[in-house]
Amino acid sequence: MANSNVAFFFFFALLIGHGIVELEASHLVYKHLLGLLSSAPANQPYRTGYHFQPPKNWINGVMIYKGVYHLFYQYNPKGAVWGNIVWAHSTSNDLVNWTPHEPAIFPSQPSDINGCWSGSATILPGGKPAILYTGIDPLNRQVQNLAIPKNLSDPYLREWVKSTKNPLMQPTAQNQINSSSFRDPTTAWLGPDNKWRVVIGSKVDQLGLAILYKSKDFVNWYQSKTPLHSANTGMWECPDFYPVPIHGQNGVDSSLNGPYVKHVLKVSLDNTRHDCYTIGSYDNVKDIYKPDEGSVEGDLGLRYDYGKYYASKTFFDDFKNRRILTGWINESSSVADDIKKGWSGVHATPRKIWLARSRKQLVQWPVTEIEKLRTNHISLANKLLKGGSVIEFSGVTAAQADVEVSFEIKDFEKAEVLEPSWTNPQLLCTRMGASVKGSLGPFGLLVLASEGLKERTAVFFRIFKGHNKYVVLMCSDQSRSSLNQDNDMTTYGAFLDVDIRHHKLSLRSLIDHSIVESFGGGGKVCITSRVYPTLAINKAARLYAFNYGSQSIKISKLNAWSMKTAKIN
Fold it and tell me: Which runs of E-coded beta strand occur in 284-434?
């Protein structure tokens, strides 16, 4: 049985342009800046305390081997912009504290001489890890390569050896694969015929493709006659394909199939930078994936995270019998500011992921290990938030905190009517931000807020009266997150599928200097924001609960903790 307990995510294809090298996923190599070594300034108000990032420069996956978690990530050792990419490597015993090692993979063969891009790994029989990754060959074609550990007795896997048969999969005139859109192999799985399967992202015009390859020995691969799946949503990057049990919260191996699991196909949409997924069924004889009836492909469907979150991968943690999701949070600041601060790119908190009871969506929650960083606990219960009120919470380090709050709502009949045309939640959150008063909402948290609220990031709910049901809108409003107008301050939002007539409305926010990861309804909606306040930094940051609606809302329970700084490097 193949253990799908490894996942890495790296980027992307090269297209030569004028003055820059432009990556297919719109990552730009700034040639005129590549020679500038970024020197991180002493004052670093936006560096995170418990999210993974290297000490400086540009970054952009995780696996478990012999009880040790391995994080491989794209890293530019020479600057805070894209370029000079190597596969950097860190290890951890708890997914929280990380120890760096020497880079694991870097360009050295003709099949990857122009770049070692994204890939995944699989544990082969006997417990041997094998990485499949995209390389850029001398013709700037995207091809697929294999690397294996040099020393299996080393739990830290500090040295890797590339196959002499690379590339193992490549575009040819016969297969008519787009050589500039053929990347990001998934974790492989075994079919009932004992052959390995792997999916690679591609496209034909705007038809996104999950191209399927098969192999008996993991070295000699051939293309299946049909793709695993396709849809008209543009190029599919970093595809991920895995089973989830229909009952419970445990994870399962990627090769498992049958009546007690559903399958998830996630793709990173190159056109919009969103990680979207569908839930469906996998015919492992015909090798066809079919989304469930009612599933929507692309941006109008389900997403892992409705904020800044991209190029994600999952892996099966067989040590704790769970599936873990990891993702990349890119910057909202300008390239000039990235160079000034000396670094760019952060990893999101690892999340446990499972199928909701409805079987219509996934649920995510930060791994429990992160809770070991909690300290300075404060709590509050049964506090009425009258319309127009704001309450400050002191006693925690508001710039580096973990907050869990549940709200109790009554007077549902006073909810505003949801107009039939209000179908886009992000647009609705933008039009009806935290400053726009309503009836039941907006209410929630003001995080990374300054005294006087000149700066604040608002994470909140609104409740509407829809057709035969009440509709919950969750928003992360960054429009006043910073006085620096050069930042991207997009407002994000999603509809939350929860019956609030029978349940309290919960919200959890992980706050870490320039990151706000929020989980609504127990993890049914996740929104990650990247913000750069100028006033609400370090000890000047404040934390509030607020209700700008006309109707009172009760805080049923609130728990908040300061978060200790993790050992990252």
Answer: 288-291, 302-303, 310-317, 322-329, 343-344, 346-347, 351-355, 362-366, 374-385, 389-392, 400-408, 416-417
Count CA atoms closer than 13 A to 564's CA, side-chain side: 12
Give the span between the Cα atoms of 91 and 517, in whole angstroms: 23
Single-letter amino acid code for the residue at 230: S
How much of the chain exceeds pLDDT 70, in percent?
89
Structural contact between residues 135 and 111, judged by C-beta atoms closer than 8 angstroms: yes
Query: pLDDT by residue (tens digit) across 405-442?
Result: 999 998 898 999 999 999 999 999 999 999 999 999 99
CA pair distance 143, 135, nearest whole angstrom = 5
Which CATH code fits 370-563? 2.60.120.560
Task: Decide if pLDDT at 141 tops 50.
Answer: yes
Quote the pLDDT of residue 79: 58
Cα 390 to Cα 464: distance, rounded to the nearest angstrom: 22
The amino acid present at 516, given as its one-letter code, is: V
Q: Are 211 and 202 in contact (CB under 8 A)?
A: yes
CATH architecture under which domain 57-366 falls: 5 Propeller (2.115)
What backbone phi and psi angles, to 5 degrees, belong to 522? Answer: 75, 20
Please report the pLDDT score of residue 1 as a whole number. 46
Distances (CA, A) of 397 to 282, 307, 350, 537: 47, 24, 22, 11
Measuring CA to CA, which residue among 24, 76, 98, 535 is closest to residue 349? 98
- Please compute, for residue 431, the number of CA atoms within 13 A of its CA located in the half-sphere on the CB side: 8
What are the b/e assignments for 533-545, b being 16+ CB within 10 Å? Answer: bebbbeebbbbbb
Kindly tell me if the per-residue pLDDT of 34 is higher than 50: no
- The domains of the chain are located at 57-366, 370-563
Residue identified by tokens 């005139």 is 173
Does residue 549 have a pLDDT over 80? yes
Q: Give the model's confidence band at 229: pLDDT under 50 very low, under 70 low, under 90 confident, else very high.
A: very high
